Amino acid sequence: MGRILIGGPHGKVKDRHDDLAIKLLQENHIITYIKNDQGSMFWELAKTPLVPWERRYNLVLYDTDLFYPGTSAEKKMEWFEIEKVYLTKTKVPVIILAETELAARLRPLVEKADFMQIDQPYQSDDLVRKINEIVGVK
To answer: What distance in Å separates the CA atoms of residue 88 and residue 134, rounded to the nearest whole number?
Structure first.
């Protein structure tokens, strides 16, 4: 069982990562799912170093469309540079869920930060297996 923070955008009918969140809950993970709320995501990331180890997240999933959905790729790249600082301070594994149009440009920054990148769209079953591997669930 892992403690997992997911940050992603709202959808018009269904949120992009709902299927993933449901599957992770079925695997008995504890999920905090922040949707389209930049302030809450910043707060969760900023407070993480202050939280005792046993209550910290084991993994952070960050969708590049969380901040300013529908805006230009350049603006999203700028926001990623800012968010990267907070993501790094968590001292836990980070998976960047990269939008198709950002994936190639983002990859060098993700690798330099020692994060993992999964390009969207992704197969939720494959991602759940990867997450279970990272948080130590067989």
So the answer is: 17
